[in-house]
Amino acid sequence: MNCRTYPGADCDTDHQLLVATVKVRLAKRQRQHSIPPLNLNELKEEKAVQFAAELSNRFTALEAAHDEVTPEDLWKGTKTVLREVAKETVGSVKSQKKKKWISDDIYAVIREKREAKGKDKNRYQELKAEVQKKLRVDKQQQLEGRCAELEAANAKGNSRQVFQVLKSMTRKFQPCLQCIQSEISEI
Q1: How far is 182 from 186, CA to CA, in rounded Å?
Q2: Of 32, 145, 35, 15, whose CA–CA distance to 84 is shortest?
Q3: What angle is formed at CA 172 by the lines to CA 167 and CA 176, rounded to 5 degrees?
Q4: Per-residue confidence of the chain (187 residues) as pLDDT tens digits?
Q5: Which of these, 57, 60, 46, 120, lies nearest to 89 by C-alpha position?
Q6: How far apart are CA 156 and CA 68, in angstroms?
Q7: Side-chain half-sphere of 114: how many Cα atoms within 13 Å?
Q8: How far apart are CA 8 and CA 17, in angstroms?
Q9: Which of 48, 46, 34 lies closest to 86, judged by CA?
């Protein structure tokens, strides 16, 4: 409906920000409830024995109520028993926030750079170079910390954590794209 560019935005690039007003009618999507992942690291020694005992007790109770049950109902019962017992014994993994690698002093320099953008060109260039240099240093420190974490996990023999850290370090960024698809009706 309406479109406008903002050439004065601070993006450190030759691109310009674009703001557009769009009128779209989208259908409501029901969100599926995500199940938090289980803490499988807890499933060792005594917890494993407790899990197996509780599971066998629940399955014997499930077999006792085995009067003309459809395969679908049997699967639902099995699935709920497995989830409940696992949640009670090992619990779920708490979501970990990504570690913040940009320090607060860099944010202060970035704010100062923004203020100097329209006023003093030389000061802006100095601050821009300083920000880029400090960002490289902080990124390198974050990478070294991840490598130390990787070596510690490898020394402990925790191959699961080794592969998780490696995957998070080498995975390419892929933005989530949600396209608008129209229904094509055939005549």
Answers
A1: 13
A2: 35
A3: 110
A4: 899 988 777 767 778 888 899 888 888 877 777 777 888 777 777 888 888 888 888 888 777 766 677 888 888 888 888 888 888 888 887 766 656 788 888 989 999 999 998 888 899 999 999 999 999 999 999 999 999 999 999 999 989 889 988 888 888 877 776 666 666 655 5
A5: 46
A6: 50
A7: 10
A8: 9
A9: 48
Written as six digits, the tokens of 45 are: 């020694």
Residues in the chain: 187
Contact 139, 106 (CB under 8 A): no
Q: What letter does residue 185 receive in the DSSP assignment?
A: -
From the list 55, 64, 49, the residue with the least C-alpha distance to 82 is: 55
Look up residue 130 and give its amino acid.
E
CA atoms of 21 and 4, how far apart (whole Å): 9
